[in-house]
Amino acid sequence: MTAASPLPSAGVMMVCLLGAVRLSPAERRPCPCPVIPAWPGTRTPPEACRQINSTFRYSCLDGRVRKAGTSNRIRCELQKGNVQWKLSSLQCIDDPSRPKPPATTKSTIPTSSRMSRSSAAHDGEKIVNTDRKLHDAATPTTVKPWEVETSTFSLVASGNQTREAHSGGSRTATILSVLLPMAIGALVVIGYMLYRRRSRKNTEEEEEEEEEQEEAVPMVPQGELPP
Q1: pLDDT tens column, 53-85
Q2: I want to staple 49 with a disulfide (CB 3.0 to 4.6 A). Which of 31, 138, 189, 218 is the partner?
Q3: CA–CA separation, 166 vs 160, rounded Å?
């Protein structure tokens, strides 16, 4: 029985050593390919251990499809000692066969309709204000002479001022409507008292003159004529 020659065994060992030397550090790793990069409009790629020259296909999101002429396939390649994924040309677009939702659902009401609603609301407010004015006009009120000027001032102020100013004008008008009659009443009472005093004084003077005239005329006995 002849002994086996050691040359073939040595050759196999040399080939294995040379192959180990030629492998780059990236190729020696158990999972040389990096994480698959995310792509716009596609699902998130799953994490898995992948080897060099392995491939992966992106999947577009629901409602989107791959655009014709683009590829969703990428390959893990070794280039100049670096392992990387070859960039994809994939473009995900809206599915043309899928019905599209109605556009601009927020502004479904036409502008003319909105304007008509606004005009109707404005007209309704005018009608309410008119009814209120008619109701106030139908209510019987006693208008005093000294309140005419105050009422006129209140109407002018309510037409030119804001609600806050109108509130202040109403307060002022209320105060004036209370103080003005009191002042006029006081003046009337004072004038009446002065008139009564002057009338009484004139009456007393007339009575005194009549008494003086009666005293100045001499008493003539009956049946005799004055000289």
Answers
A1: 999 999 999 999 999 999 999 999 998 889 999
A2: 31
A3: 9
